[in-house]
Structures
1.
Amino acid sequence: MKLSLLSENLQKKLIFANHAISNRSQLPIILNFLIEARKGSLNVRSTDLEIGISIEIPAVVEEEGITTVPAKSFLELVSMIPSGKITLTLNKKGLELKTEKIKTIFQVSSPNDFPKLYENIGDETIRIEREMVNNLFGKVVFAASQDLTRPALSGILIKKEKERLWVISTDGYRLSLKENVFKGKENASGDFSAIVPARVIRELVLMEKNEGDIKMFASKQNNQVVFLQNDTVLVGRLIEAEFPDYEKIIPTSFSTKISFDRQDFHNAVRTCYIFARETAGIVRLSIKKDKTILSSNTPSVGENSVEIETKTTGEENEIAFNGRYLLDLFSNVQEEEMFFEMTGSLNPCVFRIKKDPLFLHLIMPIRVQEEI
């Protein structure tokens, strides 16, 4: 193997490939990058057996070849190299990295034991425009459960029926749903439903910063999902579990609706959460005709309240939430004009975006012992 490439190109790609490297693995080979020089490019692969990443980097290849190199030290060294040309050569001593002023030799391991990222790519199920990825998945993935003992809740349900696509997540206390209507005829046929690990979707949102649309391939036979974007491949395993019947818990009517500015509401929750985080994170809302008062109270710390301008339709009302859920919602939504609908202080409350009727976020309220 012998090739040359630009350090800045290698640095950028390796950072993403490193997301699939685990420092705790008992399988030494997957602590390495698999690197392969082939015509016109250097391919780098990584996996922790839960997710896999493959990237292509433009290179001038004099001799093709393949090996593995310790991921941590390789990335650390490459990150320290100034912009310019890097030469990689595989010889008897190992993998030699040279720049104008640096010469390093890495010990290598045989690539034969490195796991395959996938056996076959599966069938193409959806194609997502690059600019839609964060809008589609970024508003949903944060609501998935961190508890891996509840597999279905630790994933994102991706469901396609004809021209429509839904992505849904829930941790049992909140639910986020985003719908998309396909414009291209290539997405208008072939119904599909699968649960993809939230971790894979988080990496997909990061991958979205590259150029080009993202294609999703799935193989139920191999229990695998593959996201492909030009020279980047992201691989994960599908979750074999039954997703909750989410449609049953989404309210179909309401007695109170308030419109508000997201930033105002966000700032008010942040202020109240200074006190709320000491006692289960409870933030209370007292809804009036032309305003909403947010408050929190911690006996050992103090209490506070913040008043914001809102427009109320229907009854005045009161409700309490875990403030962390509100902060997560407002941090992952960019639109400013929002509203929420509720019926009673103990029923699920639905948050919506004024200019995006295809999104909703449901939060279960908190029952408090005293009157709120």
2.
Amino acid sequence: MRGVPRRPVFDTLKERGFVSQCSNEEGLRKLLDTEQVTFYIGFDPTAESLHIGHLQQLMFMAHLQRAGHRPIALVGGGTTRIGDPTGRTESRKIMPVEAIAANAGLFRKQISRFLDFSEGKALMLDNAEWLGPLNYIEFLRDIGVHFSVNRMLSFETYKMRLETGLSFIEFNYQILQSYDYLVLFRRHGCRLQMGGDDQWGNIVAGMDLIRRVEGVEAFALTSPLITRSDGKKMGKSEGGALFLAPHLVSPYEFYQFWVNVPDADVRQFFLRFTFLTAEEVTALCSAKDEKINDAKRRLAHEITALVHGVDAAKEAADASRAAFEAGEPGDLSGVPSREMPRSEMEKGMGVVDLFVRSGLCATKSDARRLITQGGAYVGRKNVTDIETKISSEAAENGVILLRAGKKRYFRIILSPGNEKAERD
């Protein structure tokens, strides 16, 4: 509506919990309010999927893009060959170039779900394009000369690693990331690099390089690492990292993760991981006691729809209701599953082995502990004896439904095989 001033995007970012450290808040505010700003975040393809930490950065970028600014999603096909020492107590394993390239391709597909790349609204680049052909001697002379070893060692990343050992190849990482920023400034006018708080030292180094080489002010902006209200690091599912790829964490498991977050965290996750307005979030989070579960289901649906699509979110929600609501089970097709030959289950399998095989328990020790503490269910029956054998007779409609605790389900689907003939 004309006459109504647009809210500064920096205020929106702050309100939603994205802002932690900024190199020059007043200067960046002015730049964002008066110009279309090109900004970037880097994603090193060290795994075959992005995870929840990346999701926060993608939402960070998406909000800025919606305010009219231009994001660059930089896939680190070059920097991954070195390995970022940030937050690690030992060196990363050197990855094969082929694996890095394959992961980079998967990252690009996932990133495209969150940013609009039509009509020049965003760029997706790979730093292997300019890092791969570098001449080492020229690079040291032209770029390395601007870095002080003493200053580099003052950053927390390197100070931590000096105690356990820092390889020379890792020591180069900050210089390469800084060079990325310089290249993006020169080629695309990029003046803002963003990332998590653990990247502050690397981002500031790149900002300083642009000032030294080009005489222009660039900016650094970081977001806080994701923590729960109790201070614990957030982002792990029962099986490990909360990946965005459905073959690593199914849409059902992803949905259930958000349904089960602590009550005190619902508001911050709505603000960080959805596009609902602050007013909508306030209304949803005003619910108390059991009603807060409705807000959690809305949270789970919104985030799952963003990551996996509306259809997958609906299927996960339907499966969740079917698994947890009283009465006869409904459509459980969204619950994680695996097939087993019916003939294998006819003789019976130990309940410990069955829970390990399903993935509900990582080890036999975990399974024994779950069972003896009363947290293991087969169908609607609580199993407390670790010597129990489960056979195909436990199946309903060809499915053995396992449950670990109150929240985690798994389906064993019995495939046709040497089924016993019914006898008189």
3.
Amino acid sequence: MILFESVRVISFEPPAVSEPMDVAVAGRKEGGTIVETGVGLGAKYPAAIRVRGSYLSPGLVCGHTHLYSALARGMMVNIAPSKDFAQQLKNLWWRLDRAIDLPILEASALAGCADAAFCGVTSVVDHHAGPEAIDGSLSVIRKAYEEVGIRGILCYETTDRNGMDGARSGVRENVRFAREIDAARERGERPLVDGAIGGHAGFTVGEETLGELADAVKSTGRGIHIHAGEDKFDAVDSRYRFGADLAARLEAAGCLGPKSIVGHGVWLTESEVEILNSTSTFLAHNARSNMNNAVGYNKLLPRFANVVLGTDGMSADMLEEFRFACFRHRESGGPWWPDDFLKALDRGNRLIERYMGAAFGRVVAGAKADLVLWDYDPPTPLAGGNIAGHLAFGLSSRSVKSVVIDGEFVVKDRKATFDADRIAETARRESLRLWKRMEER
């Protein structure tokens, strides 16, 4: 058991900061939940590991990323200039994902999970691609999550661009992994991860493959996780080739629902926003990636009911993502303020709840113990009414002191409980091999 003593508890939704209190947490073997909150709990739990700090909050959630890009940082590969997003995919990212084998995948997943942990991110929703190493790939990623101790949702991004055999392999891997998790739960285990049904993007998923993805959604009880409208080409292609908007295609196939995640949605129409809202589908907003790829800005963002924040393969730093989301929106003349993006940041926990079937994002008895202890000494008062302002202009991942996931320390006093040195060394070695394999493609 862990006992956080005399901490001020931060609630993101509704925004609040408590008076100093104690929080007792059960370890993973005992359920990994918050047992009790109150004052003077030390006498009640004398054997607990005692931790003191300033502020304690729920863990942060990355609602959409690509861990396979973790080894792309600073890559030294000859990349042809790209005049638009489609060319960038062809010249860079599709070369990278074809170069991934299982050892490279393991190294990138470990590196990405470790990065997330140090940033106070307790859950990561991954969208994987690796067409030359599909079978078993999600289990490799699961192993990396468990080694670091991170929670999340995994999928393989099925696509037609490598032929129909590759598309079918992608669907099979999604279903296989979902059944792996189901089997683990039937044995009484509590896996840290679950599986979604992944598709790459509308313009690389034809009607046959979309139908197979829909069947997988129905048979597994999961949701689809797919890019839609990231670039204008995706939206135009859907209307030209299929005579329907992207969201309409997904809805007609039966893919949308409370567990479904649409990445980006920059070029979705007002009617498509209504479709996502009516099906309770999540929209993963990735401000930094959209800026980096110059795909445009989602001016309809405030109309989506279930916006979560993701990174789309950029660093796992969700407070950095929060800031970019706020500032880019303000630059666009949008009506949202940091408080609105604080709701989106918190809503990632609602996504995790729909898959894990437990309470997340709350520091209350019975909720899952995914927590961040912050070493933050604010120069101005920190209260419920200005939490978003502190996140936008002060608090950062540098203030993360300790991270607990499922009742166990993943980071304690800024030191990893996993083998961070080995993970970093392996990542550097495998990144060189990845870059070499890219040059060969």
4.
Amino acid sequence: MSEDGGRVAGARLFLGFVGAPLAFAAVWLSPFDLPSPAHRLAAVLAAVVLLWVSEAIPMAMTAFLGVAAAVVLHVAPATEAFAPFADPLVFLFIGTFMLAQAIFFHGLDRRFAFAILGLPGVGEHPGRVLAAYAGATCAISMWISNTATVAMMFPIGLSVLAVLEQHAGRARLAAYGTVLLLSTSFAASIGGLGTPVGTPPNLIGVGFVRRETGIALPFFSWMALGVPIVLLLQAWATAMLWRGGATGRSAEGIGELIARERAALGPWTAGQVNTLVAFGLTVALWVLPGVVAVVAGEDHPFYRELTATLPEGVVAIMGATLLFVLPTDRRRGEFTLPWAEAVKIDWWIVFLYGGGIALGTLAFKTGLAAALGEGLTGMLGVRSELGLIALATVIATILSETTSNTASANMVVPVAIALARSAGVDPVLPGVAATMGASLGFMLPVSTPCNAIVYGSGRIPLTAMMRYGLALDVAGIVAIVAVVALLGPVVLR
């Protein structure tokens, strides 16, 4: 770790281990006009927020600690406080993560990536290589972890860059190398917005909106908002990076590299076919209720039966179960996803989700969220739906630059809902906007693990990441506000 990195890490540890107890004490001793449970919970949340921001201890353990403290301080009984850990969306996380693990384990994502890069006319032009590479990254990230997508695509980008540099030299391609590698991180974060399972903040926001407003956000409805935003942002990011890293018209050797890599993948394996079947059936069942609603209307008995029988969490578990049923070698008793691989999913996100939802739910039940919303509404003076959508998006985006996107969603979405309620506005759209804003944050290496991975290559100047990232943050805010405000009332009401 560099000397500057060591100082930053030390400051974050100090903020967590010293600042969190001080924040707890300060809020505990302050004479707030709140009911006693709400006051005690406010002290707990002050400490939790600082621990999340500083990451002094793992964020999942902070979530556990916050819920446990709420029980110890008699904010709520244990059965009530820990109930959100059994929320159906927790099982949507688990099932989706197992499907993603199978995709990664069998190399299905890599096969898809090289299929995109191998499209006719792509491999011999640096600009088209950039667009196809970023497009493949974006598409994969709609379905599996943003970080896993970058971990898989980043070496492919480095290989492409190495072939180009053999002909033109590293110095000549410095700008192109910067934008190609940046496109990996940016496209992965953008793609995560497209589906509810694309990134954890999406499911966190969906959970808060459903629990606090009673409005479900079906898979199809989310995609009706998320996909247009993805298309707008991906087009903007690609054009911006293409312009910033312009190079020659030919990219001799890239086509041969891609062809060799595709050939090395060999024929489709049983594991890849099985994974594709399980994943395809899962997505079809996720999308089917929305299609029925468009065709027959949400009042049709078939739509109601589908949503009651096949909620997203149940579908995800059924799809994941297929991975343990479809065999790859019957004689050896081998199935598509070995249990040793299945347990490698991101359990910490599952735990963080449960803890965040639990604390947010307690904030509403104790009246803390309502009090916070009324106070902020009076202070900020924003009372229109459009204004609240914009405010929620901006706050979530700013917070996501210095804090984990998952933690940002846990902190901002409940506040956005409370703000909307205190202003007399339907909280669904501000809640969705805050959720999407939490997945932005493109400016700094610490903003997302995706940024950190590509910055670690040493090929991306910090000034370039900040310049391009700021432009993409602004474009993201505009796109989210415009799409949520214009399409949200049609899709979600």
